[in-house]
Amino acid sequence: MLGCHIGRCFQVTVAGGSYQEGLTSVLQGVPPGVPLSEQEIYGDLLLRKPGADELSSPRKEPDLPILYTGINAADTIENAGNRNHTNGTPLTILIPNLDRHFIHIKQYQDTNRTPRPGHASYASFLKYGPDDDAIGAGFFSGRYTSTIVAAGSVAKKVLKKCGIDVFAYAKEIAGVRCPDMPHDKALASTNGYKTMRHDLDPFYQELYVKGRLHMDMRFLEKAAVLAQVEREIDEIRDKSPRMAPEEIREKYGVHPVLNCPDPEAAQAMVEACTRIAQSGDSAGGVVEVIVTGAPVGLGEPTFYKLDAELGRMLGIGAVKGVEVGAGFAVKDMTGYQDNDQMRAVNGKVVFDSNNAGGITGGLTTGQPIVVRLAIKPTPTIAKPQHTIDKYTLENKDLAAITRRDPTIVARIWPVAEAYTALVILDHLMMHYGYQALRRKVE
Q: Is residue 365 within 8 Å of 351, Cβ to Cβ?
């Protein structure tokens, strides 16, 4: 299988599958000296994992990562203080599958002869043959996005050190749209939502905050704990801290279920999606990603334009469209309306608008980068659908019985955030290298 690799200076290779032993991210180009912990990576992974609320599948994968290579296992000299710092070698993150029981595998076995409409199962069967990893959709499952989130967690930390913030949120679900608002307000809301999820996630609290998993443990010690967790998933989940929705809104200033910076819009999204889900169907929507603090000039000409690189997020399962800035709305504008006019204020360039989404000619302008992703409805639905027997080509009817998400939007925003960070960091490293060489030869 090709296509599981991205990046030139900051490179990521992913592997694994929904019901294999687990998934893996291998990162190359991580600078040395970055302190990392599994707790902070899990802090991002818990944002996309299922089973946390009424908008997600009931699969109970805890997504507990293990940092396997690429960090110092001990101080390089006594009292150096660089234990658990990256050392410049490839960084490997393991994400074992812990909630893969036979009852769930049997559900897929019973329906795998009849490809699920909207999924990759028919095309992947023709491509890879009868050995295609079709249990839980294998590598075409949304489960693989955990590898992107894990890698993106590292990238975001490096970018933050460079003064760059990357964040995302649900912009629209089931036809309900969040109103536009200042980026700083949206960032504060997203950070508040993440804090709330950390505080209320039982695995975060029971395993990391209480010290059952920590960075002083060796790999085999961590693996032993994960083996115990596999038997205790329901017990740990039952320990989830409880807060009433109104208490969450008062304490954190966010919606208790959905990362949308307008709580009223978020509630309307949840209600609209729930109505659709009760009919056995699913809903789509839009995710918006914002990048602030990026220097002017990120991006390369022609084939590596930054907006084209961000368009690679079509590789995220369920993403069917990517737009930058005004996006498709430019078709209804005149040139005068679309152009982001400039003026100088106190020695700095100020733009009157940002229809370009912070990118012109494939290069950043210094304005916030704005990207939106169109997310299709979850293809696994509880409605009868026409399909075929992929071995005999007989016509069949299919009613999905596997676990499903009423909408994927609520889980894709962390993936989009992480994917964007991978692209931005890759280009930042190219940009810094190019500028350093330019100054050397001037």
A: yes
CATH number at residue 436: 3.60.150.10
Cβ-contact 64, 98 below 8 angstroms: yes
Residue whose C-alpha is closest to residue 143's, from 204, 174, 98: 98
- Report the domain count for the chain: 1
pLDDT in tens, 357-397: 999 999 999 999 999 999 999 888 888 889 989 889 999 98
**Angle ∠(122,126,129) on CA atoms, nearest 5:** 115
> How far apart are alpha carbons 352 and 342 in whole angstroms?
6
pLDDT at 203 exceeding the cut of 90 = yes
Q: Report phi then psi at 66, rounded to 5.
A: -125, 125
Q: Who contacts 263 (Cβ-Cβ below 8 Å, separation ≥6)?
A: 249, 253, 254, 255
pLDDT more than 90, % of the chain: 75
Q: Taking 90 as the threshold, does the pLDDT of residue 431 lie above it?
A: yes
Q: In Å, how far are 116, 279, 359, 427 from 385, measured between CA atoms?
A: 8, 14, 42, 44
Phi, psi (5° rounding) for residue 106? -60, -35
State the residue for tokens 């360039």.
Answer: 349
Q: What is the pTM of this model?
A: 0.93
Reference 286, options 325, 327, 319, 332; nearest CA is 319
| Contact status, residue 415 vs residue 148, Cβ threshold 8 Å | yes
Q: 161-184: per-residue pLDDT in tens?
A: 999 999 999 999 999 999 999 999
Residue range 119-131, pLDDT digits in tens? 878 888 888 888 7
Q: Do strands 395-399 and 11-16 pair parallel, antiparallel, or not at all (unpaired)?
A: unpaired
Strand 66-69 versus strand 22-28 pairing type? unpaired
Selection from 286, 271, 258 nearest residue 193 by Cα:
258
Domain of residue 32, residue span:
5-441
**Angle at the Cα of 160 from the Cα atoms of 158 and 163, rounded to 5 degrees:** 120
